[in-house]
Amino acid sequence: MRVVVTGSSGKLGRATVERLRADGHEVVGFDIVGSPGPGFVRVDLQDYGQVLDALLGVTARHDGLDAVVHLAALPVNGLVPDAATFTNNMNATFHVLHGALRAGIRTIVQASSITAMGFPDFANLTSLPVDEAYVEANNTYALGKVAEEAIAAQLVHWAEGTSITALRFTNVVAEGEYATFERAGVADYRRDLLGTYVDARDAATAVALALDHATPGFEVYNVAASDSGVSTPTAEYAARNYPGVPLSEGLGEFETLMSIDKARDRLGFEPVHLWRQEYAATPQPAS
Ligand SMILES: NC(=O)c1ccc[n+]([C@@H]2O[C@H](COP(=O)([O-])OP(=O)(O)OC[C@H]3O[C@@H](n4cnc5c(N)ncnc54)[C@H](O)[C@@H]3O)[C@@H](O)[C@H]2O)c1
């Protein structure tokens, strides 16, 4: 397939481009920053004219696309004022999704986030692990992700055969970022993330699987590592950090509190880059 990846210069974008190329796809990256070259086009996704034109074709780069992977965003609160985060992310997503439909592209994967499910306080949870049915936005970035999912859920009906898959990634950890897990034993480590994480390469695998399994309609999948990102057993961690929230029976000792059952069942997603091995392989500072 010929696939565009927006946000291709970012953390998840780089891993996704690498994965999709390794899978044999022809990949073009769109980003506002990046090195000029055959697989890249500098596009300001806030400008609908640029987005639509670039999706239709770019001289010397591509003359049509089969699929869009939309990852570009300001990925956290606080980089710019809240309203600017919302405006950038909402405009980019509307432009990419709407532009893709106008350009005749029917397969889209978009980045959503754990922030659409109660981050950072998780004050209103009714059960754990959290699955895709749970939606709660507590800040502007999260509100954007909830709204972007809602836009996608409507747009799939606008053109026959359209498939949009929203992947709710938890905190994405790149190779080289595992030193932070030295705090894994701290009682509330990653409390604002339900104790979860996902390796960037596994997150990229989820994107690849979502493309492979695209069927008409809108679907949401959680994307997290299968284990928690903490060294406290899951039941103990949940009781301490989310007291009173019922926990499913039969969970593994260190099982994630962000359910990936749906992605496992329907996409065949199985994370392979887990923090214990990655952290053990991380060079430790000389003492
Ligand atoms: N990093 C995480 O922990 C995490 C967790 C959950 C969801 N997500 C989501 O995954 C996606 C990728 O996140 P990331 O960690 O790779 O972020 P990142 O900041 O590393 O990369 C995002 C890229 O998007 C580009 N971009 C932003 N606005 C743009 C615009 N208007 N026009 C063109 N390019 C623009 C940036 O230049 C950047 O290269 C985002 O949608 C983010 O919200 C990330």
TrEMBL record:
Domain of life where this protein originates: Bacteria
InterPro entries: Epimerase_deHydtase (IPR001509), Lipid_A_modif_metabolic_enz (IPR050177), NAD(P)-bd_dom_sf (IPR036291)
Pfam families with a match to the protein in the record: Epimerase (PF01370)
Domain NAD-dependent epimerase/dehydratase: 3-224
Name of the protein in its database record: NAD(P)-dependent oxidoreductase
